[in-house]
Amino acid sequence: MTQPPAIMFDRVVYGIGDLRAEFSFQRHPGSVTAILGPSGAGKSTLLNLAAGFLVPDSGVICMDGRSINGLPPSGRGVSIVFQDNNLFAHLDIRTNIGLGLDPALRLDQPAWSTVDKALERVGLAGFGRRMPGTLSGGERQRVALARAFARRRPLLLLDEPFDGLGPGLAADMLGLMLEIRAEVGATVLMVTHDPDEARAAADQILFIAKGRIAADAPSDGFFERRDLPELDAYLGSTGET
Amino acid sequence: MLTRTEHRAARAAGLAALLCIGLALAVPVLVLVAQGAGTGLSASQGEYLLRITRFTLMQAGLSTILSLATAVPLARALARRPAFPGRRWLINLFAVPLGLPPLVAALGLIEVWGRNGIANKGLGLLGVETPFSIYGLSGILIAHVFFNLPLAVRFILPGLERLPPEYWKTAANLGMGGLSLFRLIEWPAMRQSAAGAAGLVFMLCATSFTLVLVLGGGPAATTLEVAIYQALRFDFDPGRALMLAAIQVGLTLAVMLGLKLISAPSKPGDTKGGSTSRPDAPHGLHALPDAVLIGVAGVFVGAPMVAVIISGLQADLSRLLADPQFWRAATTSLSIGVAAALLSVLLAGLLVRARYSAADRSASPALGLLSALSGAASSLTLLVPPVVLGAGWFLMLGGGVGQMLAPLAVIVTVNALMALPFVMRVIEPAHLSAMQRNGRLSLSLGITGFSRLWQIDIPALRLPLVTGFVFAVALSLGDLGAIALFGSDRIVTLPWLLYQKLGSYRTSDAAGLALLLGGLTMGLMLAADRLGNRNGTTGQ
């Protein structure tokens, strides 16, 4: 292998209540992985472990071949977008993005123009002085993407970011996310519960059930597979196919 | 949703309630004015008034600063550590001072901080020669912080805990730590509740009576309230009492207007605790400052309560319980408490109903006024503190000594008015949600008037009504302010008995009595809290 994997989980164990989650997988730089599975299976746990919000009981998480176990969330080269509350509601849009460049908000002129460019990039030029509450849900998620764009971190984690936006808007946002990913050159791990979203955006799938990776495969033809009982149950229960 | 007749009845009843409250407040004030009007003000008296006013403001200001300066970092530390063992217990402990009779707390504080208390022994071991004195300004400040630090924390903490968990994850992800997190996220979430808490604490400290009476009271450490009491009870100087009362009312009015300006939150919110993880909080050794702060605050608040329990258990409780004097005082206290609570719940119910009715069609200015007045009625009682109220009635009754029924009625009224804001706060939201749920249905079924009141509305409000009632009983049981002016050989309540035992250095009896009184009021408060919580889960 010429290049170390962008992100690697090596027997990463984390206990949540009765469930013992254990994950091992790796991803090439620039890949887009959809993380699917029934609720409570451990999808968000995986993301939280990668982000550093949770500390594994054992195992190693590596980025670019180096262990990031001991690094704080801010030292890992990670940007993250949640389903909701990505923006601090009492701070205006510029400040929310600016915090992504310097957490103490000591920004010089070039940094502020980076902020404005990021806003422009997601189609929200001139929104800088507005408060998050005056924006629609979709616009707020655009701002969150703009912050990830401005930060240019190598790993982008998405936790059902386009959920609740409606199918058309979600597809637009997915497109925007893919463009931004390409411009930044980031590796993406995206939790979703929408097989269509996974099909459209991801080249890889991680299917998680009961705290285990039940399937780790390319997305092409994945949803046509019939050899995974968990997948059958999942797709059947969501009624998506 | 009320019928036309019901609207009319609700407003009429509300107006009547307002009138009663107005009379109860206005009569004593008028009497004070009438009695004191003739007396002039000598230069030495002016100086005295100035000194008392200055001390009142100074101790209230210092108490507020000390309470808030501790409460803000403490709330921050508690929000940052959502899962340490005993956290729930500590938060519950912080609710106790809210319901603890000040006199009982004063006793516990004397046990801990007094000449022979643990605090001074500790200081002695550290080589500090002069013992710390619980009497005077330092004692008043400690007592006020004991009561108001937990109160302020309970105001401020929910604001932080209400922030969505994504905030803390984002903060951790972006690397916002320490100062920038405080400046940009935590302080904005605390600012409003902290300002509201500061106003409230200042108000409570400026009108604090019992604590200053017990711990201060000397010429150097007297507040307006205690000075009013002294003027009437010891010197029988209505002129001086009037001047003091006028200053007191002016002061509270100014503070209340200030509070309105910063729109104080109306009550300490609920803390959920334990659910939101804080990945932004540093762990290991970095958690030490938080741990120390939380530990010290826990000991500071908990120690006096533990002291009350320990010294109370050491007292001869069986002898105390066999003493007919105790049972007479307990009976008097409970009778006053029950009467005051009934009155308070009745007034609150009428006001809440009238407010609802007036808000329903708030187009007319008269109804707007009714709504505003009904809402303000509860705070009016804060404006005219119990001692001032009592002072007016005291003068009207000609000193009150030797009479029985009239002073009792005054004490009941004053206690009922004191509890009114709290009782209204319990009933109002429940009434609103009951109306939203049952209003249309009742109308469509044609259940109106009294039958609706008895069959629908009161049963739906049973739990909050009982909660308010129990709370009002507990508040009245612990009150010394109203009884202080009227207490005599014939009217003895539990706090009055305790105060007498303290005054005559019957320390062991006082300790036992404090435990009994504290246990009783805390039991009632706990019951009210339980009921209130049950109401919260089933009522929505």
Give a structural overview.
The complex is a heterodimer of chains A (241) and B (540). Chain A has a six-stranded mixed beta sheet, with helices on both faces. A four-stranded antiparallel beta sheet of chain A has the order 2-1-4-5, with helices on one face. In chain A, helix 2 (93-101) runs parallel beside helix 4 (137-151) and helix 3 (109-121) crosses helix 4 (137-151). Chain A contains seven helices and ten strands. The mean pLDDT of chain A is 89. The N and C termini of chain A lie far apart (37 Å). Chain A has 241 residues and is α/β, with parallel strands linked by helices. In chain A, a hairpin with a 2-residue loop joins strand 1 and strand 2 (19-27). The longest helix of chain A has 18 residues, at 167-184. In chain A, 44% of the residues are buried. Chain A has two domains: 1-77 and 153-241, 3-Layer(aba) Sandwich (Rossmann fold), CATH 3.40.50; 89-152, no CATH class. Chain A is globular. Chain B is an all-alpha fold and 540 residues long. Chain B is built from 22 helices and no strands. Chain B is globular and about 75 Å long. Chain B starts with a helix and ends with a helix. The mean pLDDT of chain B is 84. The interface between A and B is medium-sized, with 25 and 22 residues.
What keyword list fits this structure?
heterodimer, A: 241 residues, alpha/beta, Rossmann fold, 2 domains, six-stranded mixed sheet, four-stranded antiparallel sheet, 7 helices, 10 strands, B: 540 residues, mainly alpha, MetI-like fold, globular
What's the short story on this structure?
Chain A has 241 residues and is an alpha/beta fold. Chain A is built from seven helices and ten strands.
CATH topology of the largest domain in chain B: MetI-like fold
Could you give me the name of the CATH homologous superfamily of the largest domain in chain A? P-loop containing nucleotide triphosphate hydrolases
Helix content of chain A: 25-40%
**Number of discrete domains of chain A:** 2
Instruction: Count the E strands of chain A.
Output: 10
Terminus-to-terminus distance of chain A? 37 Å
- The low-pLDDT segments of chain B are none
By secondary-structure content and strand pairing, the structural class of chain B works out as mainly alpha
